Amino acid sequence: MSNVLSAKPVVDKNINDLINECNLLKSKGVTPYLKVILVGDNPASVIYTKNKKAFCEKIGAKCDIIKLSADIDEKDFLNEVENINNDNSVHGLLIQLPLPKKLKHLDVTTLVNETKDVDGFHPLNVFELYKGNKEDKILAPCTPKGIVTLCKFYNIDLEGKKIVVVGRSLIVGKPLALLLMNYNATVTVCHSKTKNLKEITKSADIIISAIGQEGFINCDHVRDDKTQIVIDVGINKNNDNKTVGDCDFQTLSNKVKAITPVPGGIGPMTILSLAQNLLQAAKKSLYP
Ligand code: NDP
């Protein structure tokens, strides 16, 4: 069995720092406060928002989930967002995706004020990545930030590494590629139109999959020399309704040097990043 890169020790190591930082902010009169807007009742979104709230409360921050009907008028939804943007007691605002059909056309990246953008989606925050900044200085997108935090914990040096990212979404693949470049990795981004994907992944030091297809990355995508590292971002439900990743963990774990599990890998790292971003935003409100 190869090395399993579990999130638990990383979260355990970081949680005390977050609790201490939170207490320090409270002693200065600032209680970090996150509001999460949940529109509709998508079952996965309900669980994700509950997990986010539970983690914020665990570190001593405040978190409210604002539940809105899937039928809400666009105007009322935008008003709700604006009210939170203008509320100085709130440091972080997150709009849980996906939005229902009625609101799908909205560009959520620009709705949340950049100073409260704990998801790191706002163009001004993304531009910080373009400029070459690392995740500790900016409100970076949570999943890419979590991946880098995990790599640092497990002493996975990114500099000069050939990293293949499979998936080019706005929330994972693209910002991840930028962040990895800022760590001097050599990054290749693949997608559904990529030709010879298996050859490309076989040439990587680190393969990061963010596709959304159960078991898509398998033994055919890796070399036999057990030197590669696989990071699985995917969260999918299999036929038994179990949560599984994009990577065939069972077979790959014997063929690669190290691999992240699903669940227990990048999912909890993403929530850790959210809490780190919230404290960063709260700190900025104190020392602008
Ligand atoms: P998107 O659906 O937005 O993007 C999927 C990407 O995968 C696209 O770029 C698509 O290519 C690419 N893709 C799809 N099929 C293939 C294929 N056969 N070969 C190569 N590339 C392919 O997904 P997200 O980025 O939002 O999420 C990806 C996965 O990560 C999901 O399972 C999601 O649930 C999970 N996720 C997990 C998080 C966590 O905290 N662990 C956080 C966010 C997401 P193209 O652009 O050409 O269509």
Please state the structural category.
alpha/beta
- Report low-confidence residues grouped into runs of 5 or more: none
Strand arrangement across the biggest beta sheet = 1-11-8-7-5-6
Instruction: Classify the helix fraction into a percent range.
Output: 25-40%
Provide the CATH topology of the largest domain: Rossmann fold
Between the first and last Cα atoms, what is the distance in angstroms? Answer: 48 Å
Order of helices and strands: EHEHEHEHHEHEHEEEEHEH
Number of domains: 2
- Molecules bound to protein: NADPH dihydro-nicotinamide-adenine-dinucleotide phosphate
Features of the shown structure:
9 helices; Rossmann fold; 3-stranded parallel β-sheet; 6-stranded parallel β-sheet; 15% strand; 2 domains; 288 residues; alpha/beta; binds NADPH dihydro-nicotinamide-adenine-dinucleotide phosphate
Can you summarize this structure?
It contains nine helices and eleven strands. With 288 residues, the chain is α/β, with parallel strands linked by helices.
